[in-house]
Design goal:
Blueprint: H1 26-56, H2 63-87, H3 97-130, H4 132-138, H5 141-162, H6 164-168, H7 186-225, H8 231-270, H9 281-300, H10 302-312
Length: 327
């Protein structure tokens, strides 16, 4: 057996029990570091702008925007989680077993909350497009806040129970010092995969398929009635058009979410024993989704562009700025 170079170990003083570092060319390591750091910083800053916009301006306090706020909060937290991936870029965990267990729970919890919010967004658009007459009476701001609270609380409770053994005995399943791993048995792994991926993705696809069919049908109907609408009818026409536009924009958010997350979960599903490293394309794509969401809002939502301008010029510090009409 060849002697191990101490520079290859996470903890050189623990020669026999230390994990080995992941060795890469310096140029590759620098590229990964810059990429992850850029994604982390952009994700935190952009989603912070979304959080401030929706929280501050009263005109943006609608059920749909509260769902976007929930999504932005989860994406904002993802930006901070990426910093932990930067720390263990060389394959070594230096923050101890307790911090490892806390990090893993947060990672699972925030990811589940984000996916749960996507399901709520799909339900919101489904009701708005398919049952427009009931939407404003059934989908209220208070009910939406309650659904968001239940989503986050259930995600936290589920993963605390799922990872209970990892929390009770931090570091129990590591094979060497410098390793941060989570252990799930077959049944626990199936539950996590079903509730974090298979179930939510199925609900999202089914609901948005229905939304797409109804939206196309309504668009055809409106085109045929445009020439003969009354004043009252024109208001209804604009309302329908607004809801369909919102469905289209959030549909883009959902499609981007599916494109970014499905490769990661499919890889996990196909090879459960394979560890997905922070430098893999599927991993980067999974977390990059949290950066893309605010960029989508910039492209499609005029209110977000107006809000960002007011935030960056510090106009929100003026008294009564929260009543500014940014819609």
């Amino acid at each position: 057996m060849q002697p191990v170079n101490e520079n290859e170990l996470c903890f050189p003083n623990l020669h026999n029990s230390s994990c080995r570092r992941t060795t890469r060319p310096p140029s590759t390591s620098m590229l990964i570091y810059i990429t992850l750091s850029s994604i982390s910083v952009l994700t935190v800053i952009l989603n912070m702008l979304v959080v401030i916009s929706i929280s501050h301006f009263k005109k943006l306090h609608s059920p749909t925007n509260f769902l976007l706020l929930s999504l932005a909060v989860s994406d904002f937290l993802v930006g901070f989680l990426i910093s932990f991936q930067i720390i263990q870029m060389d394959g070594c965990w230096y923050l101890g077993d307790v911090m490892c267990a806390m990090y893993l729970v947060l990672d699972y919890f925030i990811t589940a909350a984000s996916i749960g919010t996507m399901v709520l967004i799909s339900v919101d658009r489904y009701v708005a497009v398919c049952f427009p007459f009931y939407y404003f009476s059934k989908v209220t701001a208070e009910r939406t806040k309650m659904c968001i609270l239940l989503c986050w609380a259930s995600a936290l409770l589920f993963h605390c129970l799922l990872l209970k053994e990892n929390l009770q005995n931090p570091g129990r399943f590591k094979t060497c010092y410098g390793e941060c791993v989570v252990f799930l048995n077959y049944f626990e792994g199936f539950l996590d995969l079903f509730f974090s991926f298979i179930g939510p993705i199925t609900v999202i696809i089914v609901l948005y398929s229905r939304v797409f069919v109804v939206a196309v049908s309504q668009a055809r109907s409106m085109r045929s009635q445009v020439a003969a609408v009354t004043l009252h009818g024109s208001v209804r026409f604009k309302a329908k058009k607004s809801e369909m536009k919102a469905a289209m924009i959030l549909g883009v958010v959902v499609v981007v979410f599916l494109l970014c997350t499905c490769p990661y979960f499919c890889l996990v599903l196909a090879a459960q024993d394979v560890e997905v490293s922070a430098s893999s394309v599927t991993f980067l794509l999974f977390y990059f989704n949290s950066t893309l969401n605010p960029l989508i809002y910039v492209l499609f939502y005029p209110w977000f562009r107006k809000s960002v301008k007011l935030i960056l010029t510090l106009q929100i510090l003026k008294p009564g700025s929260w009543e500014t009409n940014v819609v």
